[in-house]
Amino acid sequence: MTEMIKKAGRQTNQNEGLIFEKSSPGKRAFELPPLDVPAVDPAKALGAAHRREGVEGFPEVSEIEVIRHFTRLSNWNYAIDLGMYPLGSCTMKYNPRVNEFVARLDGIATEHPYQPQDLSQGCLKILQLLETCLLEITGMDAITLQPAAGAQGELTGLLLIRAHHTKNGNPRKKVLIPDSAHGTNPATAVIAGYEVENIKSNAEGQVDLGHLRQQVTEDVAALMLTNPSTLGIFEQAIPQIAEVLHAKGALLYMDGANMNALAGVTRPGELGVDVMHLNLHKTFSTPHGGGGPGAGPVAMKKILEPYRPVPVLVEKEGGRLALDFNRKDTIGRVRAFVGNFGVLLRALAYILAYGPGIRQATEDAVVNANYIRKGLEGVYDLPYTRPSMHEVVFSDAIQKRNGVNTMDIAKRLIDYGFHPYTTAFPLIVPGALMIEPTESESKEELDLFIDAMKSIAKEAAEKPELVKTAPHTTRVSRLDEVGAARKPVLRWKSEEKRSEAAD
Amino acid sequence: MGYPAQFKYSKDHEWIEVKGDVATVGITDYAQSELGDVVFVELPAAGATVTAGKTFGSVESVKAVSEIYAPASGTVTEANAALVKGPEAINTDPHGAGWLIKIKLANAAEINSLMDAAAYEAFIEEKKKEASA
Amino acid sequence: MRYLPKSPAERQEMLAAIGVKSVEELFSSIPDAYRLKKPLNLPGPYSEQEVIEYFKARAVENSEGYAHFLGAGVYNHLSSVVTDVIIQRGEFLTSYTPYQAEITQGTLQAIFEFQTLMCQLTGQEVANASMYDGSTATTEAVLMAERLTGRTRVLVARSVHPEYREVLRTYAKNSGLHVEEISYAAAGTLDVKALKAAIGPDVCAVVVQSPNFFGVIESPPVLAEIARSAGALLVVAIAEGVSLGAVMPPAEADIVAMEAQSFGLAPSYGGPYAGVVASKEKYVRQMPGRLAGQTTDHDGRRGFVLTLATREQHIRREKATSNICTNQALCALAATVHLTLLGKEGLREQAAQNLSKAHFALNELEKIPGVKRRFSGAFFNEFAVEFPKSVKMVNAELLREKIIGPFVLGSAYPELSKNALVCVTETTTREAIERFVSGVKRAIAELK
Fold it and tell me: Do A264 and C357 touch (CB under 8 A)?
């Protein structure tokens, strides 16, 4: 019986409305120090046409109400702090708290991006040390820390490639992308001004070298490759892939989303990769925070170095660090200021805590994925059987016979106290269950997860309805997504506003 | 749901009903059932031209977007305005109230290359078999 | 290692269960020649205390102990400890993007509240769940205007933040957009005559910032009319959100791109912040970024989901409206908590204090012979002043008194080489303003 299985957690139920519904005129939760200069009349200072009396509809509540409101909301979330978060390709690992502490230090959080560089040497040293560490980990020659997230890193990488080809006389037309790639890759290629050509994976889920040779022409600017692939499999032929590309002057871009499988074990720079991005919010533990902020540094070989976005960190005589804004071949700026500094420094704090021991984290991540694979093989269908790295991809082929699909299993997992794995991705596996445990899970937690998955498989065989109608323990269940998309309600409106709108 | 005999059908799962030189175009019952609940439709405005075999708009469900291909070439005379507020008509009545556009045909002979109802039903039977194999 | 929850015995046990002798075997798919044979050359491992000491040592190499008068897109404002307490709750901090609605209702409802607050602030009808920052939000707003109009010429005010314009140019280069700049008039506002001369039927967007980079408030109603007469859209960027507590929102704009840094986010040497795109309901299908929507569950209970996801890259792939997949959820949450704490009255009072202090600072500066205000237009908490001496040299003098002087406008606008962009917020004390003014006075007198 399901009740016999020890569960990882239970969702708390609370009742909480919108903050706007608690508002009552005259309440406040924040008081400012008194004004210490003569007050000006806003109507006079701004002119009547510009003058606003106040923001209509803004909440008016007290401090305790704010605390309770958001604390109650927080209870409705699942989080790494509550248990295993096996979302494949997302690398939901422990977010060390000391990183939060140092990001908030006076002299760190307080610094303005336009303050004199001589008074920013501490910030610049942090950036320089992070650059050095990431170059050591990736085996590349140069890096930019500016991109705000992985997708912007991808764009930056492709713009570097474009600048390189343009400098050589022709930006070229196409970017090759395997069918197993993240959806961001093709979206990015288009924004960088390239056509996308898909390349098919072979039966083992690897890039087909024979096909690749035919597809790589002088029109191809680059291949965007995720390694390990989204199947959690290392692209064994990556040095040969690089050779095929380089022979035609094309470059190899590596999506570093899955770097958690490689850090300390192998270096993309030595595998023939020309440019790659890193997701600091994945491999380097900066908190996902419900969907950002992230950071997506781009590491590259020497040939791409002249095109880096401005500003570029440089070391002057005497070890003084500076930001160089004048670079004649730069692709330009990809965002304002120097990047997500607060995220970057958390990644450095993570690296410093491990040092060379970062390899142990990689090993544990790979051991954990293989332990799950071993525990669930046969219970769930394993469509690609090459060795798994940091994640394992099953399919729902066995459970489908009883009408239970990957989404149902994922939702049922919630009842066992776990966050679902990634469903229905990669696209080349119909009904995929993509599981990435990361190194942060203990054997005990992994055993709980395996038991839960086995129990769900049993339920799928014996009581499929129980799985198909899950989750059963959450505050809300199976929300009406169709209704939400047909008649979008994207903001709260006061009663009067709503009745006006209805008239 | 039956497939009306007076319609012609394309391999991209659109239907077309010709009355004089004006034709009505929609997606088939099979297409809507594959797509799931339609939440939004993007259609060309009157006056736009459509080309046989080329995309002229898209239909969205919660988690997918599907292109719609013109079964014949012509000029759009009307797009179904009711779908803006009620895209669900495509699910509930794909061959009737869920029609998408009316076009003035550029070349009536194009219609002859399309399938009739019986051929289309055989075509989707094949598709269903493939999917379950 | 303190972050890794396995004992050596457990590792062995797990390897045995997997059926391998050593962990090396698990990496057998990496060709041996490419496997690292020696440890990475990285500093560490550091204990928690050593990590803290490293960053404390860096902190003292920065600007601690200096007063500053910098704004230019990043503003010092008060924030409550409550904001930080909330966003450090593990349930928010260590949660993923809310794709699994049932167990992320907390994040989803907070985003819905954020979207509502952003609409109320900007006078727009819909707002997204946030984007990277103000600069990329502005670029995304322009790309949205391009999709909506099918046109490719963009007219951007030179008084838009210089770095926002640089980002726009980077993105425009490969998407077929032509960016042209429109200069400013004597008031510091967009040169309306130049705009009228430049606008035409091929323009997709007119882009202004308000308050603009010089701190001067633009007139969105007038600009919207000019844009509309040519079938173009008006995009208004807002870098200083606190202004919306005192200044009319750009309700006439078609798209608003805002930087939310002013709402409880530390300057943090340039990020992370949060950008926002807000617009009219009729344009929502072309909005970039995530959106949370209200719906009901099967028992009729109110709940929230990410909606209109078909605009996004994981579904559209090469046809996506944008390649941005993250929002800045935690920053947006900080802004939501911060604005909720401030509330209607708090924001109004904060904005009024900024206005008063900035006007006080300008009055004091103008008492110095040779110092005069550069632009005549109404301003909020930032203003340009012309010094009789080089701003760089004045700033160098100020540093001796532990004051970081204003932004040097000449660095981005060569024609404004003797102009400084002074920012004063509610955090700037009267004492600091007076110290700054006397420092400027002394520097000008002493510089030859």
Answer: no
pLDDT band at B133 (very low <50, low <70, confident <90, very high): low
Distance between CA atoms of residues B67 and B86, nearest Å: 19
Evaluated on CA atoms C139, C142, C146, C152, the torsion sign reads negative
Decide if pLDDT at A1 tops 70.
no
Task: Give the ipTM.
Answer: 0.97
Q: What dihedral angle (degrees, nearest 10) is formed by the CA atoms of A414, A416, A418, A420?
A: -40
Q: Rounded to an integer, what distance in angstroms lies between the CA atom of residue C182 and that of residue C200?
A: 14
Q: What is the end-to-end Cα distance of chain B in Å, rounded? A: 24
Q: Which pair of structure tokens corresponds to residue A475?
A: 């505050």
Cα separation of C333 and C113, whole Å?
Answer: 9
List residues bridging with A88 in a β-sheet. none
Give the dihedral of Cα atoms A365, A367, A372, A378; nearest 10 deg.
140
> Distance (Å, rounded) from C-alpha C415 to C-alpha C433?
27
pLDDT: which is higher, A13 or A400: A400
* AA identity, residue C239: A
User: What's the pTM value of the predicted model, to 2 decimals?
Assistant: 0.95
Residue A499 has pLDDT above 70, yes or no: no
Q: Is B60 on the interface with A (CB under 8 A)?
A: yes
Query: Which pLDDT does position C319 carry in this prediction?
Result: 64
pLDDT in tens, C264-273: 999 999 999 9
Output Rg (C-alpha) for chain A, integer angstroms.
Answer: 26
DSSP string, C194-239: HHHHH--TTEEEEEEESS-TTSBPP-HHHHHHHHHHTTPEEEEEES
CA–CA distance, C384 with A166 (Å, rounded to integer): 40
Q: In chain B, positions 19-58, which contact chain C (CB-CB < 8 Å)?
A: 39-40, 42
Q: Are strands C203-209 and B8-9 parallel, antiparallel or unpaired?
A: unpaired
- The pLDDT tens digits for C331-382 are 999 999 999 999 999 999 999 999 999 999 999 999 999 999 999 999 999 9
Among A71, A151, A479, the residue with its CB nearest the CB of C297 is A479
**Rounded (10°) CA dihedral A212, A218, A220, A223:** 50
| DSSP helix/strand/coil, C181 | strand
φ, ψ at A182 (rounded to 5°) = -65, 145
Write out the H or E segment, with its range, that includes residue A102: helix A97-103
Nearest to A384 by CA among A254, A189, A228: A228
Q: Tokens 């669930």 label which residue?
A: A376
A429: Cα within 13 Å, side-chain hemisphere:
30
Alpha-carbon dihedral sign for residues A32, A37, A43, A46 = negative
Cα–Cα distance between C405 and A219 in angstroms, integer? Answer: 52
Smallest CA-to-CA distance from B23 within B123, B93, B99 is with B99
Q: What is the pLDDT of residues C145-200, one digit of tens each?
A: 999 999 999 999 999 999 999 999 999 988 889 999 999 999 999 999 999 999 99
- DSSP secondary structure string for all residues of A321-355: EEEE---TT----SSSTT--HHHHHHHHHHHHHHG
Per DSSP, helices labelled H in chain B are 29-35, 82-85, 89-92, 117-132
In whole angstroms, what is the distance from residue C345 CA to residue C351 CA? 10
From chain C, the residues in CB contact with A479 under 8 A are: 101-102, 295-297, 303-305
Give the chain B residue whose CA is nearest to the CA of A483.
B39
